[in-house]
Write a structure and sequence with these properties.
Shape: globular
CATH superfamily: TonB-dependent receptor, beta-barrel domain
CATH architecture: Beta Barrel
Number of strands: 38
Helix content: under 10%
Length: 720
């Protein structure tokens, strides 16, 4: 530990010395010069409109993370990249050993508030219609860029795009000079990584293949840091009192992209095996979860004429999750199996009938099949399953359009509309026989199959090329998942309706080339018909609890980001978000919203220098501040037999704000060897306690669940 602390102190001193001392006057090397600040507004992204568009003309607030950014700051993982994106913050209740991101003051266990794509392909877990980070462990070395489009995006992407879309791009071969990579990494918690990338062009065939392996022992912390319970109290009694060896994780990743003339294909496979705590602390080696997500997509893109282009794509995906419980004792027998298959077809047409008019028209069809089984005999769940009846599928059909019109030379109007419908389907619930239980079966239908109409509107005004105003309005929906509807059928309650959000945003981008660019957003989000748990006693004093579209929240916020390049070789980024979320649901109006920090702040600084024979160096620092957060508020009664019983209230303590400091040192062309590099990243250098608010999945952790402590990772690789 002392050696690690000495290393970290040394690296901090090195970074500060290179930032603070004058640059060598004759030095001209700057690896960050490939994009000037003034050029940021003219960068093109494909995620917002499913075609290449300039940032200055996109009807949304956008953050772009390039490969150079990733190398500059030395991010250890995709999660670390995203938690440094303005407006995003992370939490982890250890129940699924996966990080869930909150966006602009709103966080949900189900991870359904933002869509995640890899090369434009949805990474969906169909049972919950959500996007689980353990399914998307893309190695950072594979990422060419990340496009984060914030704001409702359901017009383009359908249900789930509440707060936007994250598109992780791994197939950019625009520069093949160093397109192939091989690297190995080692760091804290016995973390080991291997990565290989092969990219090339053969005649008219372009290809990229990424392979990554990851393994870590995970943190070793005392349970007493997370709970006020005594070690003799249930559920801590008789279980190991530390997390060491019980939160291990292993990941395998494969991605292949190819393009031949007008045809393209994308294949990705992610296999994650991790140990978790789920409802209870681990009795032996951790609650083991194995997850597999495979997606295969093939498409055809063609310019029919100078004014018409088509893009058609077929996608097949499988998602499997097998979980092996580790409750109570070593020989506990409990499993959960979820298996899903998805088929998706989409056809997009882009037309430019007039120079000032662009029209996009799309059709989308998706079909999901899901099976879900629980087997926990000691808990009275014997072959307990939800499934679709008669080989039924969850089928979703959508038609959508967007029109961009240049009303004036400096004023663009954007309007979009989507109609989306989930067909009715029949779902069944059954439980197998045991010693004291006969076989039971319940069938029911999801019949809420109305056509949902989703609009969007934007006005983009360019005062000049360096001052751009965007007035944005959008609506997005979350359609109830198969799992949520299955529970409704089981309990005999009415069908759930889609949740929805409406957002108004004013976005202003100003640039003072080549030194400063600032992005300011003022936003208001109104979320309604949120699916939440309702509790009440009827006139006879009988307690009832069920899911209902009863939730309503409002968030008002302001966000500002500024990028400075005031001195040669030195770059500074400062960002901050202030947001206030209020629960409008009856009985909650005076209760602070859980998992919703009021203030988020980010800072990044980097300095580039030529170190002669040693190599070309980049030294950087990252700072991340997340405000205090409240844990889950449980509105159920303490005594379900007493109509006058008070509610349970908070399941734990408020967690403190935290401040994370990270540093990175990167040396390219090490010792004069072209393409050879060394990267050393330190995270949470002050070893601050990061605690995430308690929730229903691990209510025993009333002090909160642990986040990452001080870590470092050394990476050596070769670009060729």
């Amino acid at each position: 530990m002392k050696k690690l602390q000495s290393f970290i102190i040394f690296e901090v001193i090195m970074i500060l010395s290179f930032v603070c001392v004058p640059a060598i006057a004759e030095e001209k090397y700057d690896p960050m010069s490939e994009i000037s600040l003034g050029e940021l507004l003219n960068m093109e992204i494909i995620t917002a409109g499913k075609k290449a568009e300039k940032v200055s003309e996109i009807p949304a607030s956008v953050v772009i993370v390039t490969r150079k950014d990733i190398e500059r700051y030395g991010y250890i993982s995709l999660v670390e990249i995203l938690e440094n994106v303005p407006g995003l913050y992370v939490s982890d209740d250890l129940a699924y050993h996966t990080n869930v991101f909150g966006v602009r003051g709103f966080w949900t266990y189900e991870s359904k508030n933002i869509i995640i794509l890899v090369n434009g392909v949805k990474q969906t877990a169909p049972q919950m219609n959500n996007y689980v980070m353990s399914d998307v462990r893309v190695p950072v070395e594979a990422i060419d860029r990340i496009e984060v489009v914030r704001g409702p995006m359901s017009v383009m992407y359908g249900g789930g795009a509440f707060f936007g879309v994250i598109n992780i791009i791994t197939n950019n071969v625009s520069n093949l000079e160093h397109g192939s990579i091989a690297s190995v990494s080692y760091g804290s918690e016995n973390t080991k990584k291997f990565f290989a990338r092969l990219a090339g062009v053969e005649d008219k065939f372009t290809y990229v293949m990424n392979v990554g392996l990851y393994d870590t022992d995970g943190p070793d912390e005392q349970l007493s840091k997370m709970t006020s319970l005594d070690s003799s109290q249930s559920p801590l009694a008789g279980v190991p009192q530390n997390t060491g060896g019980r939160l291990e994780e292993n990941n395998k990743y494969l991605n292949f992209s190819g393009k031949y003339k007008d045809f393209y294909t994308n294949f990705s496979y992610n296999e994650n095996e991790s140990e978790e705590y789920f409802f209870f602390p681990s009795a032996t080696d951790g609650y083991l979860a194995r997850r597999q997500l495979m997606t295969f997509s093939s498409g055809y893109q063609k310019e029919i004429s100078d004014t018409i282009k088509i893009d058609g794509k077929l996608t097949y995906a499988t998602h499997n999750s097998h979980r092996f419980a580790d409750y109570f004792h070593e020989n506990y027998n409990g499993t959960e199996i979820i298996e899903g298959q998805s088929y998706e077809a989409e056809l997009n047409l882009f037309a430019d009938p007039l120079p000032e008019l662009n029209i996009m028209f799309g059709l989308n069809y998706r079909s999901d099949h899901i099976d879900h089984m629980l087997h926990h005999p000691e808990l009275g769940l014997n072959s307990f399953s939800w499934k679709l009846i008669n080989d039924d599928n969850v089928n979703t059909t959508a038609i959508f359009t967007q029109v961009n019109y240049d009303l004036l030379d400096n004023l663009k109007i954007v309007a979009g509309l989507r109609g989306e419908q989930v067909e009715k389907y029949e779902v069944g619930w059954s439980q197998g026989p045991s010693e004291n239980l006969e076989y039971t079966e319940i069938k029911g239908k999801y019949e809420q199959g109305d056509i949902e109409i989703i609009p969007r509107f934007a006005a983009i005004y360019s005062l000049n090329e360096n001052n751009i105003f965007k007035l944005l309005y959008g609506k997005a929906i979350n359609i109830p998942s198969f799992f949520q509807n299955s529970q409704q059928v089981q309990s005999g309650n009415e069908n759930l309706e889609p949740e929805y959000i409406e957002t108004f945003e004013l976005n202003y981008i100003v640039s003072f080339p080549p030194k400063i660019t600032t992005n300011l957003s003022i936003f208001r989000n109104t979320l309604d018909k949120l699916i939440t748990r309702v509790h009440y006693f009827d006139d006879q004093g009988t307690y009832h609890s069920f899911s209902s579209n009863a939730g309503e929240m409002v968030t008002n916020g302001i966000e500002i980001s500024t990028l400075f390049s005031m001195f040669q070789h030195f770059r500074l980024e400062l960002s901050g978000t202030y947001q206030k979320t209020e629960n409008q649901m009856e009985g909650f109006k005076d209760i602070d919203v859980a998992y919703s920090p009021n203030l988020l702040a980010y800072a990044k600084a980097s300095y580039a220098v030529n170190m002669g024979k040693i190599g070309n160096g980049i030294f950087s620092m990252t700072v991340n501040y997340v405000d205090e957060m409240e844990p889950y508020w449980d509105n159920s009664p303490q005594d379900t037999d007493d109509p006058n019983s008070p509610v349970k209230g908070r399941v734990g303590e408020k967690v403190d704000s935290y401040f994370l400091l990270g540093c990175n040192m990167r040396l390219d062309n090490l010792f004069g060897k072209r393409g050879l590099y060394l990267n050393i990243r330190g995270s949470n250098l002050f070893d601050k306690d990061v605690m995430y608010p308690a929730g229903t999945n691990n209510a025993w952790a009333d002090k909160g669940t642990i986040g990452p402590g001080r870590r470092f990772l050394a990476n050596i690789g070769w670009k060729f």
